[in-house]
Design goal:
282 residues; single chain; Glutaredoxin; binds glutathione; 5% strand; 53% helix; mainly alpha; 12 helices
């Protein structure tokens, strides 16, 4: 299933899913990216929907494009671009759109983005009974077990399986738990709160209007990723992890045209979306 935006023929393709936090981070970065360094630096990808809830990410044709079989992915075959991680895609955009990483805040932005992406989103997004990672791994194994799966396709599926296994192992090695991931989230958002506070001296009145480094700086890559993280925590019923000033900062962005243009007003979590759909049918 493919959905395209109205950009002119672009050499770039962005594979995404609107219920994927990392896809949303890239999509929102694209919406607030500002002006490119030059016309040749412009990145306005054709956006292609991948249904990661029916297994489209583990089809042979998608794995040919993207060996990990995840979203997002930014590809531009004619430019030799193949970026298969949201942080790499964001760096690529930052190199081309200077307002995403203003020099004065570069170090802060880079180190906080790194910290944000260390957080296990799966742990705070899904309940153990959702069996999100296990479900994906089982589906991959099922395809591998089918007699008509070619040796080449089986090999590609094994790479995807190994990637998931490695992630699970890292989680166990780090001794992570829901409580520790919640603590990581709080620690991260506390730093955002401090930045907001240093900009506005703790006053409440302007925070709804502004960006982390202030209106004169405008949206940076840190804003783009943090706003999406806030949206996900809200959808995952984890509002208690968000400091009040950070919530006041985030909420208006989640009502903006840029955000609603991406989500169409849907939640960021597929499980929540399904629940809403079910309720509407009753
Ligand atoms: N580190 C990657 C994570 C990508 C990732 O795990 N994407 C998830 C959605 S948020 C996905 O594609 N899940 C489907 C699957 O693993 O099969 C990034 O930042 O892009």
């Amino acid at each position: 299933m493919a959905q395209t935006n109205d950009s002119k023929a672009s050499p770039y393709e962005l594979y995404y899913n609107p219920f994927s936090i990392c896809s949303l981070m890239v999509l929102y970065t694209l919406r607030v990216k500002g002006e490119p360094k030059s016309a040749a630096d412009a990145v306005d990808p054709e956006e292609r929907f991948i249904d990661i809830y029916t297994g489209e990410q583990m089809t042979e044709s998608y794995l040919e494009k993207h060996p990990k079989g995840t979203v997002p992915a930014l590809l531009a075959p004619s430019l030799g671009v193949k970026l298969i991680d949201s942080t790499d895609i964001t760096k690529y955009l930052c190199d081309r759109y200077p307002s995403l990483v203003p020099a004065a805040h570069k170090q802060t932005i880079e180190s906080l983005l790194e910290e944000l992406h260390e957080i296990s989103y799966v742990t705070i997004s899904f309940k153990p009974e959702d069996r999100r990672t296990e479900g994906v791994m089982e589906a991959v194994r099922e395809i591998m077990a089918q007699p008509d799966t070619s040796p080449r396709y089986r090999e590609m599926l094994q790479v995807k399986l190994d990637g998931h296994q490695k992630r699970l192992q890292t989680f166990q090695d780090k001794n992570q738990s829901v409580a520790s991931v919640e603590a990581d989230s709080r620690r991260y958002l506390e730093k955002i709160s401090q930045l907001l506070c240093s900009k506005h001296g703790g006053g409440q009145e302007h925070q709804e209007q502004t960006w982390i480094f202030g209106d004169e700086v405008g949206p940076t890559a840190l804003d783009a990723h943090t706003v999406v993280f806030i949206a996900r925590l809200l959808d995952a019923e984890r509002a208690h992890l968000i400091p009040e000033d950070v919530l006041r900062y985030g909420k208006p962005k989640l009502e903006s045209d840029a955000w609603l243009g991406i989500t169409k007003g849907n939640p960021t979590l597929h499980t929540l979306w399904e629940k809403h759909q079910g309720q509407q049918k009753k």
